[in-house]
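Hi R.,

Here's the chain you asked about this morning:
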Amino acid sequence: MKRFTVILSMLLLFLFAPAPQRAQAAEERYAAAVEADVWFYSSENENSRVFLLPATYYVKVISEGETFTRVEYLTDDGPYQKISGYCRTEDLLFVDYIPVRPYLKKEVTLSYTLPQTGGLGGGSFSTVEKTFVYYGHRYEDGVLYYYVLSGDTFDYIPAEKELEYEKNTDCLDYLAAKGVSGEAEGGQGGMNASTILVICVACAAAIAIAVLVIRGKHAPVAENHED
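And the predicted structure, written out as tokens:
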């Protein structure tokens, strides 16, 4: 009985011990912005909101923290440019696979009408079009803005409506397979897939060892006393 108690105690320690962190240099890790209200921050501060990430797309996890997770979004593949920042850990869905299409690669072309000032020319260039790389959006004082890149410059531009884009089927299929609907997990928001796997394996091991211990118990041997 004492041996069984020791084994069970060791298994419980293993079961409830913190899950080991993955070696970041050896394997990339991603997390999805399932909902449309996941902010990308420039620092670990609520006041440093930059833009709302496109729903169902991913960020690359650099280091997971209790409150904020350091992340990267997009890649250095012109005209796109990688940016580094933070997301709230509880807002992300940490996944155990590498997405085929992690980022929304989208360009937007906006038209600007130049003021008519009279003078020379026939007004052939009264309208100018410019193309930007789209990162996300935000509202400020009721006005919609896109957060965009032009060349090497990031800035906000006003927009009339939120951008329409194709949702990421990788994320949607993953949620459907897990029976999750619109609810992120990871960090403080729940257990990720790796943690669940560790618990299942530990439970199975506990049951198997318990069975072996019980089967291996021998009947008490009568002590021989010398007269």
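The CA atoms of residues 167 and 189 lie 23 Å apart.

Let me know if you need anything else.
M.
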